[in-house]
UniProtKB/TrEMBL annotation:
Its EC number is 2.7.7.7. This is DNA-directed DNA polymerase. Residues 5-137 form the DNA-directed DNA polymerase family B mitochondria/virus domain. The keyword Lipid biosynthesis does not apply. The keyword Disulfide bond does not apply. It comes from Meloidogyne incognita.
Length: 228
């Protein structure tokens, strides 16, 4: 999970000791075998988020006068890391077993991506279908120009027309083997770009006058155009 190790404890409601504060800057050979009194700077307090800093300040005031045995605390700190990670993995495995109908993520997959793909194949892929996911997902799998889509949205709102684009409910309009970048029957507006470049669409949207019928005729005659 994309979170610090300490956040795993509340995230999974783990029954383990919370991750303690540790003076990382005091962890050097000259302090080994000694009892020290670390400063706030050695705890890297200035780099903490506000909520964590408030917790640390309260904790520090309670423990600043207690001797800190680096050898013992270093061993305890590392052990706590392992305890949290182990408990989190067990909790994650248990929850995933429940939602995936028995898929053991720790035994059957090595990465999050493979976990998700196998869960999809096991529990969501229909029979007689091939589990191949497009590189960019099922939504807008083709390259799209953000500039072009913003321009089309602006044009649609400015002229109060419904323009069908890749972000429409049914995606782009298809005519033969081609996909139209945008189309509007009300304005006889048709756009197509072979590379979905924003500059191509910008010039086309301002100059296009061909109708749906004319484009269909061009397609039927086998004529190829760069922008329609």
């Amino acid at each position: 999970m994309p979170m610090p190790l300490a956040s795993l404890v509340p995230a999974f409601a783990l029954q383990v000791e919370d991750k303690p504060f540790f003076p990382h800057l005091a962890n050097n050979p000259k302090n080994y075998g000694k009892e020290i009194f670390p400063t706030k700077e050695e705890y890297l307090a200035n780099g903490m988020m506000p909520e964590k800093r408030a917790q640390f300040d309260k904790w520090f005031e309670q423990h600043k006068n207690e001797p800190f045995n680096l050898n013992e605390q270093l061993a305890a700190y590392c052990t706590n890391d392992v305890d949290i990670l182990m408990a989190a993995l067990i909790a994650f495995r248990k929850e995933f077993l429940e939602v995936s109908n028995g898929f053991d993520v720790l035994r059957e997959s090595m990465t999050i991506a493979s976990v998700c793909m196998k869960h999809f194949r096991m529990n969501h892929l229909k029979r007689q279908h091939v589990g191949i996911v497009p590189e960019k997902g099922y939504d807008n799998a083709d390259n799209q120009s953000k500039l072009a889509l913003k321009l089309l949205k602006w044009y649609s709102e400015k002229n109060m027309v419904n323009i069908r684009t890749a972000h429409s409910e049914n995606g782009e309009k298809k005519m033969g083997n081609y996909k139209l970048v945008a189309g509007s029957r009300k304005r006889n507006l048709l756009l197509r770009s072979t590379d979905a470049a924003g500059t191509d669409v910008l010039s086309a949207i301002l100059t296009t006058t061909l109708s749906f019928q004319q484009v269909s005729q061009l397609e039927n005659n086998g004529r190829r155009t760069k922008n329609v």
